[in-house]
Structures are given as C-alpha cells and as structure tokens.
Automatic annotation (TrEMBL):
This is Glycerophosphocholine phosphodiesterase GPCPD1. Keywords: Hydrolase. GO terms for biological process: glycerophospholipid catabolic process. It comes from Dreissena polymorpha (Zebra mussel). The lineage of its organism: Eukaryota, Metazoa, Spiralia, Lophotrochozoa, Mollusca. It comes from the Eukaryota. One of its GO terms (molecular function) is starch binding. Residues 1-135 form the CBM20 domain. InterPro entries: C2_GPCPD1 (IPR057506), Carb-bd-like_fold (IPR013784), CBM20 (IPR002044), GDPD (IPR051578), GP_PDE_dom (IPR030395), Ig-like_fold (IPR013783), PLC-like_Pdiesterase_TIM-brl (IPR017946). The keyword Hydrolase applies.
Amino acid sequence: MASMSCEVNFRVRSKTRPGETVCLVGDTPELGGWDPHRAVILHCEMGRPNESKFCPEEHSEEGDIWSKSVHLEGSNIQHYRYFICRLHQSDREGDCRRVLVREWEGHIRPRRVSLTEEISKASEGDNKLIDVFGHYDGLHVINRGWLIDHVEIQLQLEGEAIQMWKSKHKEQLYSIKCTPIDNSCRKTKGGTFDCEPIGDTLPQSIPTEIEVSFLEKGKSKPRPQLAFGAIFRPDGFMTFYAQTYDPESLGFHLDFYVHSSPAGTDREPEHVGSSFILPIDLQNARGEQKVPINGLSNMPIGILSFKYLIVKPMCGGPGFDMRRTFQSYLKTTRRPLDVGHRGLGSSYKSKKLATMRENTIGSFQGAANHGADFVEFDVHLTKDEVPVIYHDLKALITYRKKKSEELELFEIPVKDLMFDQLRNMKLSHPALQAEYKYEGIHDNDLDTVDLQPFPSLEQAFQSVDIHTGFNIEVKFPQTKIDGTGNLSGYFDMNRFVDIILASVFKNHSGRRIIFSSFEPDVCT
C-alpha cells in the first residue's frame, strides 16, 4: 500500500469548563495510537495569538472552536476521535503528563480522515469543515471518562442526613455547597488558590472540581454546583463527586445555607454553618460517618450523617485505550433478547423446578442450545478469591450431631470456603428440605462435571458457546432496613470488583457481556 503524507487541520466546536482541554487521538503514531496519554492537544482559537490551551471563562453558548494542524503519514484513511480532559503534571519519572478524561466520543465507528481528500482540498483552497464534539455519522454519542490513575470520592446524603438540634431549624430547607480541601493547593485571603508551578509546557493544575447529582429524572448525571450549592431534600438522594490523584490529602468543607424565601425569589439564602470531612474520616472503600455542623460562632448546632464511596482504577488492568467501546452501546432496532435466568431457570423452588440444576455449566449450555441470546448468572468470590458462580451468599453444609443419626444443615458464607472445598461439596438448599429427606453423600449420587455446582467464572467462559452472551450479576451483601443481611469481614469492594473484571478481560474473547448488580456502588 502506497504511503502518503500531508498536513491536516483538525477543528472541532466543543463546550468546555474552565481548566478543561480538548484533545484528539487516533490510530497512527502521530495521533497517539489511541492512547489518551499520547494524544494531540488542541488549542482554543479564542486564546490566540498566545496559543493558549485553555479558553477564557466566557464561552460561546454553542461552544468554542479548538484546532491543531498535524502532519500525518501512512495509509490514506486514518481514524480518530475527540475527548475532553484535564491535564496535570505527572510525578512519575518518564511521564510528561497525567490525563483525566472527562468525556469522549463513544461512536462504534470512529471519525475518519482521507489524506487524498485533504491534499485535494488544500490545492483548491478549501477549508476543513468544523466538527462538533459528540456528533458524527448522524449519531450523538458522548461517554464519561474512566479512572486511569486517579480516584473518585463520592459523598452520599439521604433521609435525615441533616439533623439540627434547635426545633426551629429542623423544618427548614437547606442547600449544601461542597468545597475541596487540598494540602497541595491552599486558598488565599484574596480567594485565589496558591499552587506550586508545574512547568512551562502544561496548563497549571486547578483545584479538584466538585460535581453533584440527584436520584431524580433529569438530574442523575453529575454537574457543577451552583453558587450556594444544591438544595437537599430529606426524601431525595444527593451525591457529591470529586476526582483526585491524591485521595490521602483531600478533604471537604461543606457550607450550609437556609432558604427562608420561596423558590424563584431574588433573596439569597442565609449561611448558617459548616462541616469538615477530613481524609482520616474516609479510610475504607466505603462507609458511614457523622460529623458536627458548626454554627457561625464555631459552636455545634447539629450533625451531618453521610455515606462515602472511594472508587479506585482497576489494579493491573489490561490498559484501556480509545480504539472502541461498547460501554453504552445498545442496538435499538434489534428484536427483544431471550435471556436464560440462571441458565435454564431456577431449580431451588418448590414449584416449576428447572430440568437442570441452576447456575451450572450444563444449564448454561442447555439454554444456549435452546436459542437463548444471553444467560444470566450470579458471581462472587471464594476465600481464595476465585470468581465463582452461585446465587446465594451462603452455602449449606451437612453435619451430624454427637450420638445422633440425624443430619442437620449449617449455613456458612461462600467467602469463608476455598474453591476446592466448594467443588467437593454436595449441594443442598433450604427449599428442598420440606420435600426431600436428605440422607448424606454417596459415591453413586455425585453429579457429572457439567451439573456440579460452583463452577468458576473462567470455566463458564471456556465451556459455553461464544455466541451466547453473559449477563453477569455481581453479588455483594446488602444491609436490609431491619439491619440484617450484611456479612462481617467481607471483601474490599474495589478489590472484589477488580478480581471479577480481571477474569472477564482475560477470558471474554469478544463475547457480548452485560454487568448488573442490586448494589449500586458495585455498578459504580
């Protein structure tokens, strides 16, 4: 194939926030080889003639134009996509920058540029049309970025999160403004931030941005806070988001404002107090904490109760790039999917029992042979951290009391049993005890390999037809309203999810996969 070369001027219109930069990445070395760390940094045309990478805070309502001329060589057709990020100086030797991807174009087919057409346009004096971020090939697709080497911290408020002690304060409507406290970036008396310089070639790092969302229609996506934060309602669910490279030094300052006037009036809310959340308060992957709300005289006037979640990037992941993603892809024109629940259906109910034991390789293969598009199954970890397929968080072990011939069942969490121990067990279930008298294990009643319980996730990938998709439901203990259901000493959620994902990325071979969970933090 003949090699070509020419200068291509990339231009895109995009809405950005202060501190954000637009970049492009593509399938050639000149375009970064799909690696966001090696992407081409565009310049905001409003920033010229100083070639500033940032646009001023006064943006066009339609977005600003970002551009860069790049000399391309190689094949005639080359592919690329745009993304919006924050650039930071890297502390690691050999790395010139850290890239915090905020949004990126998620089209299945990336943009394309023809060098032949670009050469022809240049000879005719034709200007390149301006691309619009997220719009391509008749589709509007923008994906949120993923965690590369930074951490996301969430503060979650619900119910009676704000408990004021004085009766007159209890029924008032409050808004909360969350501000990051960063040891490496301190606020001065003039309201600016005193940060150490990070070099001549990169934009200066700005303080961690806080976003907020609500569990309401139209408000569920994280967005910037308003001047007085966001109104908290006891019947709602509010989440603050912060992404940082240094979670050990990041704390939060929360200001509380009272809204005494009806909504829509010009009167500003009244500042009544504040709370501080320090890094020492956020030690585990997730937890619950209470901190005092101090009034303007620095005396406590109430208590703030909150949950927190610390989301870390996948440890030892496969090294994701921007070549392609099916993260939010759903073909809307296809027929409904036929999904085999636990394979061929549940086998542990007193009525309508499946013909094969649920959550076994045989059940999955049987569903595939009967035309199932997907099979759904439940995954959690054994004591030796093997992803195993089983519905319940606890298994039943049979034991015999002293001086008694009767067998009884003892519940034990799957997390407390090694994988080999599980594979050597004969499975029973409480729903079966009313109908069947359990008489112990005999050599002649052991199941065949495909019908044995507790197959590993890896075994399912290797044994089930590649054309059958997987709906992998990730099990994790949840505390019920009455306080039951939790398991003490359970796995760290980040490590738990990483181990399951590592098995998926190692074994998927292009299989269609959907993840699901009843635990929202697992999905996050």
